[in-house]
Amino acid sequence: MTTALAPRADARAIRLRPASWALLAVAFVLGIAAFGWPLFASSGPNSSHTGDAPWLMVVLVPLVLGIVIAQLADGSIDAKAIALLGVLAACGAALRLPSGGVAGFEPVFFLLVPAGRVLGRGFGFVLGALTLFVSALLTGGVGPWLPFQMFAAAWIGFFAGCLPAWRGRAELWMLAGYAAVAALAYGLVMNLWFWPLLAGSDTSVSYVAGGGLVDNLRRFWAFHLTSSLGFDLPRAVFSALFILVAGRPLLSALRRVARRASFEPPVAFVDPHPEGPPAGP
Amino acid sequence: MGGRAVAVLGRVGASAALVVGGLGVALGLALVLALGVALGPGLAPAAAAPADACAAPMAETDVRVVVVVDPGDGGPMSTTCLVVPRGTTGMQVLARRAAMLGVAVPRYASSGLLCAIDGYPSSGCGERGGAGFRYWAYFSGTSGDWSYGKGNPFTRRVVDGDIEGWRFVEGAGNGTDPPPRLDPSPSLFPVQSTASSGPTSSAGSSAGSSTGSAAGAAPSGSPSGNVADGVVTGGDAPVSSDAAAGRPVVGDAVSIEVAGAPVVASTSSRPWVPVVIVVLVMVGLAGGAVVRSRTRA
Amino acid sequence: MISFDRVSVTYPGSDRPTLSDVSFEVPEGELCLIVGPTGSGKSTLLRAVNGLVPRFTGGSVAGTVTVGGRDTAGHTPRELADVVGYVGQDPAAGFVTDHVEDELAYAMENLGIAPEVMRRRIEDVLDLLALHDLRDRPLSTLSGGQQQRVAIGAALAAGSRILILDEPTSALDPAAAEDVLAALARLVHDLGVTVLVVEHRLERVAQFADRVIEIPGDGQRVVIGLPSEILPDSATAPPVAVLGRLAGWSPVPLTVRDARRRAESLRERLAGLDAATFAPVRAPHGARTVSVRGLRAAYGPIVALRSIDLDLHAGEVVAVMGRNGSGKSTLLEHIVGLRTPVTGRIEIDGAQPHRFEPRHAIRRVGLVPQDNAVLLYHDTVAAECAAADADADVVPGRTRRILDRIVEGIDPQAHPRDLSEGQRLCLAMAIVLAADPPVLLLDEPTRGLDYGAKRRLIAVLSSLAAEGRTIVLATHDVEVVASVADRCVVLADGDVVADGPAREVVVHSPVFAPQVAKVMAPQDWLTVDEVVAALAVAEAS
Amino acid sequence: MRSTEPRLLHPVAWWVWATCLAACALRTTNPVLNGLIIVVAGFVVAWRRPDAPWSRSFASALRLGALVIAIRVVFQIVFGVRVPGTTLFTIPEVTLPSWAAGVALGGPVTAEALTSALYQGLRLAAVIACFGAATSLCSPYRTLRALPAVLHEAGVAVTVALSFAPQAVISARRVREARRLRGRRDRGVRAWAASAMPVLEGALDRAVALAASMDGRGYGRPGTMTPSRRRTVSVLFLLGVVAVAIGAYGALDAGAPGVLRVPAVVLGLAAVLAGFALSSRTTGRSRHRPDPWRAPEWSTVLTGLVALGASIVTPTAALHPSVSPLEVPMVPMVAVLGLLVAVLPARLTPPPPALVGASSLVVAA
Prior knowledge:
heterotetramer; C: Rossmann fold; six-stranded mixed sheet; 19 strands; about 40% helix; about 20% strand; D: mainly alpha; 2 strands; globular
């Protein structure tokens, strides 16, 4: 007679409960607001406040991030997931050290994308956030932008876990493409956040409170084009290339550890002599 | 910083904070920050003084000002007379005017540049046009003629009988830019009498009635009929509302001035002195910091 | 305290059980030693005690394991955490926090123990393991021995009455190992803690053991008994026991002290014989292959090597000894050209190694680093071998042949990191030897090796030396040095404090003397084999 | 009551203090005030930062601030819409092609424009400096310990990462060197990339070992969290986030009724804090020697709040000096005095202990 403990189908490092899903949904919406407010905010009697909106977000975003992570980690996360999180975040940060975490050469995605892919959405989300947090602590890059970087990276990790379950060449190309897109998107949203601060309010590329979506998009595009796209494109290409080159061993290594630290190990306690008392609960 | 003062402050701090409570502090802080950012610059005067204040007898602490706003070819000109507390700055006058006429408040760039009056122009700020900068030029008219940029509207304190002129121009951004198309003259002020009398009370009332509708699209809140004689005096609102609405405004304004008293002192005669003092303090602190870290290393 | 009842463990994906039908009892307050060749399932047995097998690793367990009255089938490892303390092979890898005190508190915080109790227990542990002056040191600044003691302390502080340790001293130099083992002994004797320890270095542990569990591997029965019953006949007996068995002493001594009492007669019988003549004969040393002159090395402010002069010759086996951090590894890294000398000069047949092109360097000198995993890039043994052939550009298959010559039967499809310590060492050696370097350096080659693997290593090294290679091994393992090295260099914080024939250097050093030497002192016998040979001669005459 | 026995101040105290200063910086573009904020932060850091690697981050924060100012000025010069006034110099005008949104570059650069750019850049630099001060004043490990217990798991992960990252760097170096032992090049990008894999492999193995040790040491013992309570916490969190989101919307959309703004944020924060408190109370975990919160902590927090309060009562005109026309920035004495109060923690707080360790960050920092 066999008592199998915790037999589960999926092998997600962090499983998402319905509550987590709901929270993630709201967080996603809030994230859109947190990054995209310059495009949506309307002008009016208190339009001058929109100049301070990013700072309001600086208070709110870490709060939301903390809640989501707490919710994800709460209960459903085991020692292996924690250890892997810590170690992978450390590796990501170490990769990021030479670049000093400055935009441009941003090797974070090498690790984040495959890890999210292999170890699942929830894990990808937390890993993305923690990686940037750790590297900020190591490089002294803690600042008002940090929560937003964490937030963006978290979603990159999350969606990496949502990619279709292709294998082989297709998988590599998919991941490479995704990494490139992710790198670009990351640069874009972070730039969107820096936009009102760096471009001020009285240049031809700066954010005009209530200037209307189209006009502001035009201005932002000009800003992005002239400020950071120069860094983002090489970064995207580099990320994609690296995944094409080192992706296979990377994935196999991650899969190997996911197997070794089998997240739902097929545990069984067998009782050799049936007349004896049944072992196990 | 003397150890004694430090001790006192420390004890005060300890006891006071004990009352507040740690979580309270954190929460309160988050709130203060949220509020600070949400409502930070919200010190603009709120309520409107009634239009006929110019005609009515006024308090000792008040002055009468006429504001001429000429949006160039962006719409008709408007002339408004209003009563403000003594020491009000040009910008505050402009804000009070907007509040009184119920039109859009002036829009500023974070650089302090005035972008729009009465919501005109609707977007952009001091952009370059063909013939130069398209911006609101600030004039102050005394008797008969306008003079350009006689001081900074942020800091220039109006005195009784001042005429503030704003003209939206496309120009070099200096004295060569054209002034409002209306000569400043004391005649812009209505005759002050106890009786509520005005030449065009109907026009005034129409101005009053137009405030709500004119706030949005129409750049100026006054119908063209008044522009002919260029005089807008408010309609005959009941005098009682003066006491009702006016006082709090004055009180508010006064409180601002009290808080800002050092400001007045600093900007008046030799503005550099306080700056130099503070800079010296900063240098001292920085020096201390550097020395400290040297000795540690 | 610990009882296994007909326990078999089968890992997922493997057809035959790793442990089959194991039954034994370990009473409270005993230090129980688990011996057996590599891969016989010692670690599995250890981890089965606190339920890491199968809860953590997966797999199926038949039979019942009971620990402190709790059944591992009914309790997860974390629920056993207050009964069993587990200290893994590399303590540093198990540290969760950053500071000594936090680390000691970690388990207790998880168990929700009241702060004041926690505080008291931590103070006790600090005193018990002599850690009080390390209490707020960052863990990463501790030496191996200190880290090991902290790990033990952390397990103790959690209140566990049972400690299970996996090779606690394999990475330590003799002195540090002494500390750790003494601490363990104290726990057993004073506090009645039950300790279950896997250890290869029997010469270190045997004297402390109250009981021995032998796992012979390849399906033979697991036996438990007193050390004096089990060790002598086991394949993993410490030298002193082997000596005792040969000399026909009974009960067979397990400590140098017991043996010396008995060795009186033996010493008389061997008196007047020259030990050196019974040592395995070596080809006479050839020409000078490596010369080190005035070598100085420093990491920032710390001086690793002061002024080293050294000559190495073809066909000699040189052992570099010294405590951790005495500069052994640094010396090897300079010789192989990984580092550029600050001052001084190194020459390998006339050229300076750090100037070599990597492709040619491997034909001149090879190093098997302490952490030999850094040499392994690929995900199968076969791929590694093929890559090594390519690197050295030699005929395909050569590396594999070398590997088979060193040790047979490594699955070519296995993942290099899944190999046992011994197997991985052999793989690394094979990779380095592929380019056939005349000078071979090994850094701590014996760590984690069982006696069998060591014997093979010794054989391989002597044959390599016989081919005229220069072999340098930096090691703590006095027994290996005694049986293979013919010259011994002792480093102490960056200086050469002794350099000469192994026999002279080793015999009279209290730290580096092998057991046989200690037993036979003042005579200068080094190994059991010498004694055996000498006895044969003595009988004959 | 200057406390002399050396200890680290509670990280939360430093963070509150720094946040207050940052808020002050946010409320003003006055260069005098912002400069003062930077200096004040620097002074306190110089006197109270522990001798640990992370405490160098203030310097890097200053560098970053300088960078930001530079960027801001460059943008103003290149794209600046000309604030009318005294022209300093003129750069040729270019109009970008339409796919680049047809923005006009160049033109005359006025002193007014540059000054406004400088003021705004300085404001950002001050904010960054405040964050830098906080990070260099508190040990990241302490800060992690101060997290609400519900974030414990994430905190553990970060702790592990912080102590492992430097080792990852070291082992990466070792692997790269080891390439030489196999006759491969040990320099260049390929070597760097190739060294990534073995490092990762080693890291993953270590993760498994670590997890084993954590499991064996009672990690994640299920607390007394009942399902119902867990549900309550989830609901509270959800509610809080939604409310906060609404508040954010209220702050952004002028049309939104004011009631949406502050009250929503307050409600959200309250709900979230309640959730934290509730779930923190029910983790079956205890804390060894938690960082004390005594008078120095209180006074530090208070000085920060004083500075913020002073800046709040200062009139807007003084906080935002005009740049067109240019004029000497006014010096609002109240705000200045408030900021000077914020220097006091340099003396009110206990000196940091000599050895704070955490040398594990050495490689990184």
